[in-house]
Amino acid sequence: MTWLITGGAGYIGAHVARTMAEAGERVVALDDLSAGVPSRLPESIPLVRGSSLDADLLKRVLAEHAVTGVVHLAARKQVGESVEQPTRYYQENVGGLATVLDAVAGAGVKRFLFSSSAAVYGNPDVDLITEDTPCAPMSPYGETKLAGEWLVRATGRAHGIATVCLRYFNVAGAASPELADTGVFNIIPMVFDRLTRGEAPRIFGDDYPTPDGTCVRDYIHVADLADAHLAAARLLAGGASGDLTVNIGSGQGVSVRELVTLVSEVTGSTRQPVVEPRRPGDAPRAVASAALAGERLGWSARRGVSEMVESAWQGWLHHHPDATA
After folding, report:
1. Is 291 helix (H, G, I), strand (E, B) or coil?
2. 209 with 70, same domain?
3. Which residues are known to be catalytic?
4. Which 3 state secondary structure label does DSSP give 214?
5. pLDDT tens across 261-285, in order?
6. By CB count within 10 A, which of 5, 116, 171, 258 is most buried?
7. pTM of the entire structure?
8. Same domain, yes or no, for 232 and 294?
9. What's the pLDDT score for residue 2?
10. Alpha carbon distance 187, 259 (integer Å)
């Protein structure tokens, strides 16, 4: 098989592309490089620069590379930005997906893997979030991911395309320093950024109904996430039919305070975090049930939060060589 990976030069995309290629899959990456970095990919993986909104380019890439499966990761993913720019998020996330699916159906490609998100669930009041937990997204970003799932399944039914939607939780870490997340939008790099600027880490709210009063989250190492994509791709390649939607998480909860403490230990910082008011929409607890991933994909998370933080810090130092905590 040959897999097209949209967003293949991004933080997650490059991990997925490398993992699949190292496992023997033929891979081609498509990325507009708005957030992607070409050097993340080895020379053995062809990189096509362009947008998933470009129907003619997609048609050409699918034909020229004889693509038989697509992994669609290209999307905008900042929750706050989506609140400020909802039309942009719908145009790029849903419109881009529709363009890709049209090209896939037109080319006769029969396997499609969609990058979804735990943001589809919103703020459920449950101990573990299963795939049957009702979806009630609380941001335009989450809405676009849920609408994307609907569109993927509907297109799959209409054109006989086998589909998998992976709903992943909080992604962190790096398989190697050069692949680290260069953005400052997730909690771990946000803490690194404040520490290296001589500022205290921030905790938003410490009065939640959790053991230490701070929000509890499920963190997944990006290398484990890449392994999950490989497992899902091989399920599709093996002749799976219909559609599958599955959570990708560790099944373990870590509080914000625990995470900040771990970051301080890894970086050697002695700065104490400051507590600020709650942010609107933050759920007290959001932890995945990973049972279905084990059952259907034969996959489970292998790397712990300490490894995530340590690898993320090495990546931060690689991209910020003068940084100190």
Report:
1. helix
2. no
3. 141
4. coil
5. 999 999 999 999 999 999 887 889 9
6. 5
7. 0.96
8. no
9. 98
10. 9
Helix axes 140-159 and 96-107, enclosed angle (nearest 10): 10
33 shares its domain with 149: yes
Q: Which residues pair with 217 in a beta bridge?
A: 254, 286
> CB–CB of 180/163 below 8 Å?
no
Amino acid of residue 161:
I
CA distance 180 to 193: 14
Per-residue pLDDT, averaged over 17-39, amounts to 97
Domain extent, residue 123, equals: 2-171+219-248
| pLDDT tens column, 188-245 | 999 999 999 999 999 999 999 999 999 999 999 999 999 999 999 999 999 999 999 9
**Is 207 a domain residue?**
yes
Residue 164 CB partners (closer than 8 Å, separation 6+): 112, 113, 114, 232, 235, 236, 240, 243, 244, 245, 246
- Structural contact between residues 249 and 168, judged by C-beta atoms closer than 8 angstroms: yes
